[in-house]
């Protein structure tokens, strides 16, 4: 009989937590016992997993004893407080927040890019899941960087409201209904109307004029790729429910033709090339929603520089951008380290 692994999920009632449970089921991860945790006001809530109703608990001393892996998606404050407890009680933490990403003792992992980095979990018992926008970008950059080192990246993101959580999904739905019925839309989650609009503002603004989201992409890319790649980013929230899109411009040391780039991407793990302009084929957020591949299209040479490429990259932010990436890390742990 093959081994099973006991798994805890912290933030189990949220959009990403529920998606983690779905992905564990879909990928047939060998789960033994499951423990689900959330805030005190959700204690006792029943959540379905593998045909069983499991009651949500609150974290107390000893909650993680006997757990092999703990998946976290409950925000940075919770992760900073509880990950050390879970690790101390024997569970390897895979954290979806930004709390541990830039800690030099915590590996930051995208399995298609740097799977060997998982081994670094032994330092603190924690592995960080990157930012959702960073994940899909580095997945597309990796095969090109391996062929010719990337010198510079200019990226603009077009991010779905689900990246802000369920309240943002509800706000877009409600605002759309109000506006279509001739009534004003009142923003609650965002600083301005999101329906039929776009906001060049994700997370807080920093002293350098960039947002925290934009600087996450700058710093996380360098750590994951283990390269001093110059990255500049503009992050935009758009009125789409699921699926982040990115317009990416790269400059490489040696020339990569558009055809060669498409060839490299077509055989890269986790990448699907959708690129046939003559047939009007290119990836959209609707195409990416509900799947785990990162979709790449509009691959073309940048005619303003000698070694430049443009491409359009789309992925489901709740799956590959969060839940699936975390479960893939758990699979590496289970297969190589536990």
Structural notes for this entry:
This protein is of the alpha/beta class. The chain folds into two domains: 5-131 and 322-337, NAD(P)-binding Rossmann-like Domain (Rossmann fold); 133-316, Dihydrodipicolinate Reductase, domain 2 (2-Layer Sandwich). It has helices at 15-26, 76-88, 132-147, 166-180, 212-225, 258-266, 285-288, 319-337, and strands at 5-10, 31-37, 46-49, 52-55, 69-72, 92-95, 126-128, 150-159, 230-237, 244-252, 271-273, 294-301, 308-315. It has a six-stranded mixed sheet. A five-stranded parallel sheet has the order 2-1-5-6-7, with helices on both faces. It is globular, with a radius of gyration of 20 Å.
Count of beta strands: 13
Percentage of residues in DSSP E strands: 15-25%
CATH level 1 class label of the largest domain = Alpha Beta
Oligomeric nature of the chains: single chain
Low-confidence stretches: none
Topology:
Layout: E1 5-10, H1 15-26, E2 31-37, E3 46-49, E4 52-55, E5 69-72, H2 76-88, E6 92-95, E7 126-128, H3 132-147, E8 150-159, H4 166-180, H5 212-225, E9 230-237, E10 244-252, H6 258-266, E11 271-273, H7 285-288, E12 294-301, E13 308-315, H8 319-337
Parallel strand pairs: 1-2, 1-5, 5-6, 6-7, 8-9, 11-12
Antiparallel strand pairs: 3-4, 8-10, 10-13, 12-13
Can you summarize this structure?
This protein is of the alpha/beta class. The chain has 8 helices and 13 strands.
Attribute tags:
five-stranded parallel β-sheet, Rossmann fold, 2 domains, 8 helices, 338 residues, Dihydrodipicolinate Reductase, domain 2, alpha/beta, six-stranded mixed β-sheet
């Amino acid at each position: 009989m093959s081994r099973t692994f006991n798994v805890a999920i912290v933030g189990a009632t949220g959009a990403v937590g529920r998606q983690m449970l779905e992905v564990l089921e879909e990928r047939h991860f060998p789960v033994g016992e499951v423990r689900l945790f959330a805030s005190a006001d959700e204690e006792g809530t029943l959540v379905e997993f593998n045909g069983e109703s499991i009651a949500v608990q609150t974290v107390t001393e000893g909650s993680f004893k006997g757990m092999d892996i703990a998946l976290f998606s409950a925000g940075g404050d919770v992760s900073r407080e509880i990950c050390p407890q879970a690790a101390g009680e024997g569970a390897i933490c895979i954290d979806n927040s930004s709390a541990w990403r830039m800690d030099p003792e915590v590996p930051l992992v995208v399995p298609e890019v740097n799977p060997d980095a998982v081994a670094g979990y032994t330092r603190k018992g924690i592995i960080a899941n990157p930012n959702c926008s960073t994940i899909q970008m580095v997945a597309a950059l990796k095969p090109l960087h391996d062929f010719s080192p990337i010198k510079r990246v200019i990226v603009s993101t077009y991010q779905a409201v689900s990246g802000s959580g369920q309240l943002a999904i509800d706000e877009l739905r409600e605002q759309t209904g109000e506006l279509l019925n001739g009534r004003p839309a009142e923003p609650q989650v965002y600083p301005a109307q999101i329906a039929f609009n776009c906001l060049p503002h994700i997370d807080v603004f920093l002293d350098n004029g960039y947002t925290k989201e934009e600087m996450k992409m700058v710093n996380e890319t360098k750590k994951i790729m283990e390269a001093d790649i110059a990255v500049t980013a503009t992050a935009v929230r758009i009125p789409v429910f699921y699926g982040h899109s990115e317009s990416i411009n790269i400059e490489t040391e040696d020339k990569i033709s558009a055809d060669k780039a498409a060839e490299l991407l077509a055989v890269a793990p986790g990448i699907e090339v959708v690129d046939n302009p003559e047939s009007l084929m290119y990836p959209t957020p609707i195409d990416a929603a509900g799947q785990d591949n990162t979709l790449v299209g509009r691959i073309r040479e940048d005619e303003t520089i000698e070694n430049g490429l443009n491409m359009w990259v789309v992925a489901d932010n709740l799956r590959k951008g969060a839940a699936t990436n975390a479960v893939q890390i758990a699979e590496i742990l289970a297969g190589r380290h536990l």
